[in-house]
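step=encode ok
step=design start
structure_in=
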């Protein structure tokens, strides 16, 4: 079972909110959906969820067209919208029981217990949703989206309103859910996307400007190796010049060298540190951050 989005478009008056985009999501994948406000992410998610109809193009899930077989498609789609609209006068457990009945689930009490345990909502299950903090309301929204064990999970800003500890917990929940669902989620927290996703889609002005695995997107920008020493090394220029290294720069504590094919630069540097009685604090290549890539793609 896979999600296939093929050349979909959506226009409001004279503005193209989504302009001819195509991509796929496969079982086990966690795909991050990035883009500035107004890029078309939420509109795309609504079309995939069957809430909006595309003006052109096709969306298929498990080889069935979402526009044509919308009821069947919705049975295997879980969707947490950005607004996270909840029945705030209902108690948490009461709300999940209501949704279980809507989905015609079997063993509703057992499934509710599984979801409550997964989202750590046990202490909140007998409280009204309106009495909960924004972070816990977000958890209830996720619980509602996964209650029927969907094959495709669409999460629009799922970590909104969560504190750092809750972010870590929800990150682990999302990883756990990917064992049974393919997941597409939008987020403005780029660190979360880096930590959780296999692949990233980036939208800008309605167009898809990137569809890359995280590892490929963050590949090293150069073949330079940065070595940070605990001690100052600026006075060791003469010793460093005797090494078979292509040195780019020497700062107080930082040595930057070019790596070369067939030459074990790290081994040479480690031996130099050992001979001189130096301690290496950090050693790394130059990598682009997701923030830098995001700015580059959306400007």
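sequence_out=
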């Amino acid at each position: 079972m896979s999600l296939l989005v093929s050349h979909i478009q959506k226009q409001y008056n004279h503005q193209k909110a989504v302009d001819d985009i195509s991509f796929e999501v496969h079982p086990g994948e966690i795909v991050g959906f990035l883009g500035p406000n107004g890029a078309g992410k939420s509109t795309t998610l609504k079309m995939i969820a069957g809430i909006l109809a595309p003006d052109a193009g096709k969306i298929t899930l498990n080889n069935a067209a979402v526009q044509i077989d919308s009821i069947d498609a919705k049975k295997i789609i879980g969707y947490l919208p950005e607004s996270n609209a909840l029945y705030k006068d209902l108690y948490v457990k009461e709300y999940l029981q209501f949704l279980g009945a809507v989905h015609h689930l079997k063993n509703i009490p057992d499934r509710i217990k599984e979801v409550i345990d997964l989202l750590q909502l046990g202490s909140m299950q007998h409280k009204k949703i309106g009495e909960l903090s924004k972070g816990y309301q977000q958890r209830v929204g996720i619980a509602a989206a996964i209650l029927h064990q969907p094959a495709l999970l669409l999460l629009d800003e799922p970590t909104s309103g969560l504190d750092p500890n809750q972010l870590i917990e929800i990150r682990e929940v999302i990883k756990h859910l990917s064992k049974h669902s393919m997941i597409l989620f939008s987020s403005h927290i780029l660190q979360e996307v880096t930590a959780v996703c296999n692949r990233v889609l980036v939208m800008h002005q309605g167009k898809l400007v990137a569809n890359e695995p995280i590892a490929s997107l963050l590949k090293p920008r150069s073949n330079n190796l940065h070595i940070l020493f605990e001690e100052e090394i600026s006075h060791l220029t003469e010793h460093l010049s005797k090494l078979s290294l292509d040195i780019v720069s020497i700062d107080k504590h930082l040595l930057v060298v070019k790596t070369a094919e067939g030459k074990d630069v790290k081994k040479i540097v480690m031996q130099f540190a050992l001979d001189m009685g130096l301690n290496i604090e950090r050693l790394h290549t130059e990598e682009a951050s997701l923030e830098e890539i995001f700015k580059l793609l959306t400007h």
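step=design ok
step=annotate ok -> The mean pLDDT is 89.
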